[in-house]
Amino acid sequence: MQWAARKKICEKIKEKKADYVLSLKGNQSTTHEAVKDFFSMDEKELAKYGVIKSEKECNPDHGRIENRQYYLCTNLSWLENKDEWPGLKAVAMAREERTVNGKTSTDIRFFLTSLDNIELVKKSIRLHWGIENRLHWCLDMTFNEDYKRTPKGS
Fold first, then answer.
1. Model confidence at 154: pLDDT above 90
2. Which helix (H) or strand (E) is 18 found in, with range?
3. Structure confidence at residue 63 (pLDDT)
4. DSSP assignment of 76-144, as one string?
5. How far is CA 23 from the centre of its chain?
6. Largest CA distance in the chain
7. Is the pTM of this model over 0.70?
């Protein structure tokens, strides 16, 4: 989705007195890189900006161990295009480590949000993941999607 369209969606969401948590991806290069660079600072530097860090969550389940930690920054003085986003109050980072069969992988994701409460941001990120998982399960079970083999390039 184009950035202009996402900004209009944010505007509509705020008009309805609701909040948003938008995932930042590499194709939104300028904002994504700025937020990624910001969160790459060490803990002392992040503390100067008032970054809030959640408690680490550990969830052993289905033969894997998942550790999650969330970061939220409401001081956006460093973000150049912050005024382009209706209702923007913070940027967030989710750091997730997953260990399966002794191998650990790390996933780091970044977000723009109109929320300024780390617990609500955490909940929103986790609920979105749950929705995606349920939709994939539904596609797999209803349409046998995992067994559909479309030749590459089709």
1. no
2. none
3. 75
4. -TT-TTGGGSTT--EEEEEEEEEEETTEEEEEEEEEEES---HHHHHHHHHHHHHHHHHHHHHHHHHH-
5. 5
6. 52
7. yes
